[in-house]
TrEMBL record:
It comes from Euphydryas editha (Edith's checkerspot). Coiled coil: none annotated. Keywords: GTPase activation. One of its GO terms (molecular function) is GTPase activator activity. This is Rab-GAP TBC domain-containing protein.
Length: 275
């Protein structure tokens, strides 16, 4: 027989409810099973960003291996930045006017163009949130999105990806600002301010593993400057549109026909509803 705990959640005699505490990495409350249920019931504790990382399989539940995993992600980001930040002036024999796809100078100019394109979106992030008006925050977002796009030439950067990154950055910042003075060694390492950018990249990369397919356009690959070929070469619907059509046809009308009918009567497309 199930019993109700003080929070209204159900627990059983064999698996009693265990109260989780902020910034406390005790194993029962940081197991994958517990975190999934806590997320469903809107009771994830802090650092919430670390719980997200576990749920996204970016890092294992807190154990001796979690420090190795976090360090590995941070080292990967540092290595990626070094690899993609080559100074063309140090390359002998390369011409700044070269159109050769292997030209470091050509890639340098394409990178500047890609960063400018990303910045156009970043400066519009959450207009009512002062944090995103800070230049250093905008620069951080441009870097994270740029390096991810360069590491994933297909789909590359797509409009709207900055809105995926922004909530992650807010949560990472909040976890650090609200941390108590006394922390375990694991949390003290994870919550270092110097690694805010690295951890943003880690979480964004983990989420994009599931979202990446929605930003692809058939077999079309962006240019080295991050732009898609002209629309004349594109065929078929975007993957996300097909997915939303499936949601409407197979799920919405089945589980919530009133909502489906209301959207149809109001002329609200699934693309708009999906946003």
């Amino acid at each position: 027989m199930e019993q109700s705990n003080t929070n209204g959640s159900l627990s059983s005699p064999s698996k009693p409810y265990i109260e989780a505490n902020d910034y406390d990495l005790q194993f029962p409350t940081w197991s994958m099973e517990y975190l999934k249920q806590a997320a469903i019931e809107h009771r994830l504790v802090r650092p919430r960003s670390l719980a997200w990382a576990v749920l996204l399989n970016a890092v294992p539940p807190p154990s001796e291996d979690i420090l190795i995993s976090i360090s590995g992600h941070r080292n990967f980001y540092d290595d990626l930045k070094k690899k993609l930040s080559m100074d063309p002036r140090g390359v002998i024999g390369d011409d700044p006017l070269s159109q050769n796809e292997q030209s470091v100078w050509k890639q340098h100019f394409c990178d500047k163009e890609l960063k400018a394109m990303i910045l156009q979106d970043v400066v519009r992030t959450f207009p009512d949130e002062p944090y995103f008006r800070e230049k250093n925050v905008q620069d951080l977002m441009v870097r994270v999105l740029f390096y991810w796009a360069r590491a994933h030439p297909s789909p590359g950067y797509r409009q709207g990806m900055h809105e995926v990154l922004a909530p992650l950055l807010l949560e990472l910042r909040a976890d650090r600002r609200r941390a108590p003075a006394r922390l375990s060694d694991t949390l003290r390492y994870y919550l270092q301010e110097d690694y805010l950018e690295h951890d943003s990249f880690m979480l964004f990369s983990a989420i994009m593993k599931g979202l990446e397919k929605f930003y692809t356009t058939g077999d079309v690959v962006p240019t080295s400057c991050g732009r898609l070929p002209t629309s004349k070469t594109l065929h078929g619907q975007n993957e996300v549109v097909r997915y939303l059509d499936k949601v409407r046809e197979e799920y919405l009308m089945l589980f919530d026909p009133d909502l489906g009918t209301h959207l149809a009567e109001c002329g609200i497309s699934m693309e708009l509803f999906g946003m």
